[in-house]
Amino acid sequence: MPRPILPSLLTTTSSIITPFSASFIMATSSEQAVGGRPRGPSISIPPIEPSAYPSAVVVVTQAASFPGLHVVRELLSLKAHVRAVVASQDEANDVADAFVGMGQALRILLVPDPWVPGRFDDIIKGSSHLVHFVSPRECSYHGNAELDMLTPAVEGSCSILQSAIRAGGLEWVALVSSVTALGDYRLSPTEDLTRQAAGKVRGAGEAHMLFAACNAMAEQACWQIWETHRLQSDKPDVFGMTSLLPVNICGPEVVPRAMRDDNLKLFHAVQGRYMGGEDRGFWVDVRDVAMAACEALFGDISATNGRRYILSAGQAWLPELGAMIRMEKGIPLPDIDISLASSSLRTSASTLSAAPGSDTHATSSEPATPTDPHTLHNLDVGPSIHDLEVVYGSLDFAVRDTFDQLRGTEWGERLGIVDRRGGNGRNNRSSMPTEGEGRP
User: Fold this and answer.
1) Are the CB atoms for 299 and 2 separated by under 8 Å?
2) How confident is residue 418, by pLDDT bands cut at 50, 70 and 90?
3) Within the chain, how many helices (H) and strands (E) appear?
4) Taking a C-beta distance cutoff of 8 angstroms, is the pair 99, 138 a contact?
5) Which of 258, 263, 250, 251 lies closest to 39 in space, CA to CA?
């Protein structure tokens, strides 16, 4: 049964509010959208169910990111009020462009320096829930590990949790980390788990190790803050917290303009870059990540509090997925002979789980050895299916939906896509309701 939601404390008296710690931008109608941008088919919103949450006020960090936009989309479909936190004006424009006409249901908050103590105080006040992406994505690395990744991840996560404690009234926090936080991100097996070691990135090719380190340290910092607050607080309403650890995230964009994050691997697979070796990895549909985040906020409080959940639809072979899309889209790639059998999707039980705030390395039946965090095996997704009620979609559909979006875009032209198939089962959803259609 969904947990009851406290009455909303959010009131809106003007379209633009500018307190000292953040710029509040109200996304109202088309004047907030950015015109003239090339775009493919957008992802529409499923019908609003009667059991929605119109009194929930949810803060979402990194709202303009690939998974962040989907989280915002799912929350809006539940009639929740969303405070979307972004780091730049361009990101603010992206969110406004994705959700035109949402009126007072969506507020966009510009926070360029989230690591500054107290920066989230005004943002958290009056909110009931928080979805926090604990680390910037790999693409945020531009040569300075500390400034680009580590500080925003660790200090930024500490800042928002401490603001939540000061504000009071928050019901639930869903952290979105990464399964890479369970791996060994060290560049050398002799190095300790230290901030200094994590910053020893020698180029963009090692950014995935930095991403893993940021997730591990930021998530651990969040659990330590939460546990300390829980033990020291004399109040019975200490907010609950759940952590989600997705694997490689694929799927369509809310508003397609470019391939980014893990979707780039699929793009490169279609180009034929992954033709040798195993090139296997675990994948999950971005829409399932967003739904899991909403379930963590509004689902069974007794089952999820203080727990971490791996999100994975299974394992897939990149050359196989690339060949499937080339065949369906009429993309030529001469002199390549690849089996087009169905994607190999697997899940199996294991002990790959860690207690909140404890050592973030994975535990399994095999001896622990330093390893690339993207090569974890035997992921146990049973708890996410049972506790979060995640119904994982087919990776075939996720990949097809991703490339169906590219028609008429620059990225589709770069591949020479010729559509040879009809619609599929996941992208045919009803349109986003406007302020006058189902909005509180």
Assistant:
1) yes
2) low
3) 14, 12
4) no
5) 258
- Pair 137, 179: CB distance under 8 Å: no
| Contact between residue 39 and residue 254 where contact means Cβ atoms under 8 Å apart | no
What distance in Å separates the CA atoms of residue 415 and residue 413, rounded to the nearest whole number?
Answer: 5
**DSSP 3-state assignment of 379?**
coil
Going by C-alpha positions, the residue among 195, 180, 364, 388 that lies closest to residue 282 is 180
CA 187 to chain centroid = 25
- Whether 243 and 281 have beta carbons less than 8 Å apart is answered as no
Which H or E element spans position 244? strand 240-246
Q: What is the mean pLDDT of residues 313-332?
A: 85
CA dihedral 150, 251, 43, 89 (to 10 degrees): 20
- Say if CB 363 and CB 351 are below 8 A apart: yes
**Integer Cα distance of 214 and 406 in angstroms:** 31
Structure tokens at 263: 């979707």
Asked if residue 190 has pLDDT above 50, the reply is yes
Nearest of 97, 107, 130 to residue 31 by alpha carbon: 97
The residues with which 113 forms a beta bridge, in sequence order, are none
Whether 216 contacts 185, CB under 8 Å: yes
Element (H, E) at 226: helix 207-232
> For the chain, how many residues are written?
440
Taking alpha carbons only, the member of 299, 179, 180 closest to residue 240 is: 299
Task: Evaluate whether 248 touches 184 at the Cβ level (below 8 Å).
Answer: no
Q: What homologous superfamily does CATH list for 19-252+283-314+347-394?
A: NAD(P)-binding Rossmann-like Domain (3.40.50.720)
Cβ atoms within 10 Å, residue 349: 10
Token pair belonging to 310: 């791996």
Q: Mind listing the pLDDT tens digit for each residue in 208-266?
A: 778 888 898 899 999 999 999 988 877 766 899 999 999 999 999 998 878 888 898 88
Cα distance between residue 315 and residue 345, in whole Å: 5
CB atoms within 10 A of CB 38: 12
Alpha-carbon Rg for the chain in angstroms: 21
Pick from 194, 301, 312, 196: which is nearest to 246 by CA?
A: 312
Element (H, E) at 304: helix 301-304
**Residue 350 neighbours by CB distance under 10 Å:** 18
Per the CB < 8 A criterion, the answer to whether 288 and 312 are in contact is no
Q: pLDDT band at 172, cuts 50/70/90? A: very high
Burial 263-295 (b: 16+ CB within 10 A, else e): bebbbebbebebeeeebbbbbbbbbbbbbbbbb
